[in-house]
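RECORD TYPE: inverse folding
INPUT: structure tokens
STRUCTURE:
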């Protein structure tokens, strides 16, 4: 008989997900066999990592180079007061392992850039963009296009969040949504300069994790080619459709976006 993908204890752990017809045992097994890389373990990356681990992703990668600072604690919920000054990657791994010991965690304590993205991304099925800067998003996009991997994207600003899935089944890329020639004129304010409510990255990151689960299990309608935009103060939600530009799929190397 073929070896069981899920142990009896895992089946008990994920009972409530397995009960859902759109996921079922087959979907849970797909989650167990999947690998997802989360780039960034800040406000967005923290909830993404927690919910993907809780959902039963078999192998989680984490790329993060920064250290915990006190002003992070209001929104980066994997860390506590005693973690200030420590590497986010190490603390995040410990917390995720505590959350679900069945998940294999692989840490990359570095900044993702044009020199390492292809090598690191090649070992994962799905790439999650939980970063806070536009140049890194282009690097992630280009690597995903070259390797033909979906890019689950999230971004936040004041009370607004956005979630999208780029390069999904040949759909629009991040370049289609935000062309580089326009990005040089777009603001990319950081929370340190504008302020941000702690719940916003939690809501946004949870949506991002949900898209990952949908991609893997085939449940629901994935945000491929669409950007979900919401405002938590006004309780408004709407989505826009991104035009697919064929030329953005012909990337052969990752550009240098440090000047953006």
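DESIGNED SEQUENCE:
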């Amino acid at each position: 008989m073929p070896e069981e993908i899920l142990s009896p204890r895992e089946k008990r752990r994920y009972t409530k997900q397995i009960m859902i017809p759109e996921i079922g045992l087959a979907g849970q097994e797909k989650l167990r066999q999947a690998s997802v890389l989360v780039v960034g373990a800040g406000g967005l990356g923290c909830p993404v990592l927690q919910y993907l681990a809780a959902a039963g992703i078999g192998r989680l990668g984490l790329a993060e180079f920064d250290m915990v600072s006190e002003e992070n604690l209001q929104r980066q919920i994997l860390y506590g007061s005693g973690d200030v000054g420590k590497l986010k990657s190490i603390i995040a791994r410990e917390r995720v392992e505590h959350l679900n010991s069945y998940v294999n965690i692989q840490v990359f304590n570095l900044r993702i850039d044009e020199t390492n993205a292809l090598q690191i991304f090649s070992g994962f099925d799905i790439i999650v963009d939980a970063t806070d800067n536009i140049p890194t998003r282009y690097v992630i996009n280009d690597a995903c296009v070259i390797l033909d991997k979906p890019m689950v994207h999230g971004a936040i600003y004041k009370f607004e969040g956005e979630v999208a899935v780029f390069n999904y089944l040949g759909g629009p890329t991040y370049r289609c949504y935000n062309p580089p020639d326009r990005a040089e004129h777009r603001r990319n304010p950081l929370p340190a300069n504008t302020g941000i409510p702690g719940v916003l990255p939690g809501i946004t990151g949870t949506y991002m994790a949900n898209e990952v689960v949908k991609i893997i299990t085939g449940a629901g309608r994935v945000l491929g080619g669409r950007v979900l935009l919401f405002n938590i103060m006004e309780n408004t939600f709407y989505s826009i459709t991104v035009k697919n530009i064929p030329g953005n799929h012909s990337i052969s190397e990752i550009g240098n976006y440090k000047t953006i």
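NOTES: The chain has a mean pLDDT of 93.
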